[in-house]
Design a protein that fits this description.
The protein folds into two domains: about 210 residues, Alpha-Beta Complex (Spore Coat Polysaccharide Biosynthesis Protein SpsA, Chain A), CATH 3.90.550; about 110 residues. The chain is α/β, with parallel strands linked by helices and about 350 residues long. β6 and β7 form a beta hairpin. α8 packs antiparallel against α9 and α9 runs antiparallel to α10. Strands 1, 2, 3, 4, 5, 6, 7, 8, 9 and 10 form a ten-stranded mixed sheet that branches. It is built from 13 helices and ten strands.
């Protein structure tokens, strides 16, 4: 059995997937790399097959009909043989030194019989044209280099939240929580980073800049114009997360609070994109989203609507919306996202 399965969802990724896969090969025989070709029409399939032929004990190429990012991740989970599971998108890559640190830590945890449910590391916004790269770390919120539980988690700042890029899950945990991401839907990485959390008991954090999150392609899903054009999918994911939070028993109060924080961020993103669309239809969708949250979970609605971000994003009138946009642009400049 492999120590770690890394799934690389690929759709028409011929121009950049080699950098990603090459960075993962450093893990050697401890790692299983699943290149999931999600119905690509370019040379992605051939590149995947070439890697599988050259590295038969490390790389597996899986070809499937197009189902979107979530479908490719689901396929990875279904086919994973590693004790732990990670997703690395085909336009991203990992840092070699950090990668070795993480594999060493996982190996020691397994050998000692102290397996954790989730291992976390830092991620870096590799924004095209930016010399200074924004690093998202958790050194103030999480104990370092030791096993801990939610009870030992400290305060997360608004700019600190756990994305898919940070996470390595215990593979069996993903089966236990029956995680299945929606097909033909963008932004499902948020569900990946959210739904398993009530099942996570033991964690481990390494303060190392592991994942390099590339931002710069015009067709990228997190590009602002693309997000606005796909806003219905962002809203769909937002609502699915609200539903899951409402229907799931979350016994630990710190897990509960963190999940509210995550929903606060996601709902703010949905709202600001709808404001940025600058259409009457988009503003109606924003009102409908907030109404949906109020009806589905009144307590959650009060926490989101009357918190800091909820107040900022719901300032009244055209002037209020301009103020919300100005604050968003400032955050964008500081955080280097989009």
């Amino acid at each position: 059995m492999k120590l770690l399965t890394i799934t690389v969802p690929c759709y028409n990724s011929q121009d950049y997937m080699k950098r990603c896969v090459d960075s993962l090969l450093v893990g050697g025989e401890d790692v299983e790399i699943l290149i999931v070709n999600d119905g690509s029409s370019d040379q992605t399939a051939q590149i995947a097959d070439a890697y599988a032929l050259k590295y038969p004990t490390i790389v597996r190429a899986i070809h499937k009909e197009n189902g979107g990012h979530g479908s490719a991740v689901n396929t990875g989970i279904e086919n994973a043989t590693g004790l732990y599971f990670k997703v690395v998108d085909s336009d991203d890559w990992v840092n070699e030194k950090s990668y070795r640190e993480i594999l060493s830590a996982l190996h020691e945890l397994v050998v000692s019989g102290n397996q954790v449910d989730m291992l976390l590391a830092n991620y870096v916004y590799e924004k095209e044209g930016e010399k200074r790269k924004k690093v998202v770390s958790f050194r103030r919120a999480l104990p370092k280099n030791e096993i801990f539980t939610w009870d030992e988690v400290r305060h997360f700042k608004k700019t600190e939240y756990i994305l898919m890029h940070s996470i390595i899950y215990r593979t069996r945990l993903l089966h236990e929580c029956e995680l299945e991401l929606p097909e033909h839907t963008f932004y499902v990485d948020n569900i990946f980073a959210f739904n398993p959390l009530p099942y996570v008991k033991k964690m481990y954090y390494i303060d190392t800049n592991f994942y390099r999150y590339y931002i710069g392609r015009e067709d990228q899903s997190v590009n602002e114009k693309v997000m606005i054009s796909r806003i219905d999918q962002q809203i769909k994911v937002n609502k699915l997360m609200v539903e899951y939070f409402t229907e799931t028993r979350i016994p630990n109060r710190k897990t509960y609070r963190y999940m509210i924080k995550y929903l606060d961020i996601i709902t703010t993103v949905s709202s600001i994109m709808l404001i940025r669309a600058r259409t009457a239809e988009a503003l109606e969708k924003k009102e409908e989203l907030w109404k949906y949250i109020r009806i589905t979970n009144p307590g959650l609605f009060r926490r989101l609507r009357y918190g800091l971000l909820g107040n900022v994003i719901n300032l009244p009138g055209k002037g209020g919306r301009r103020c919300s946009e100005a604050i968003y642009r400032l955050a964008q400049k500081v955080m280097k996202f989009n």
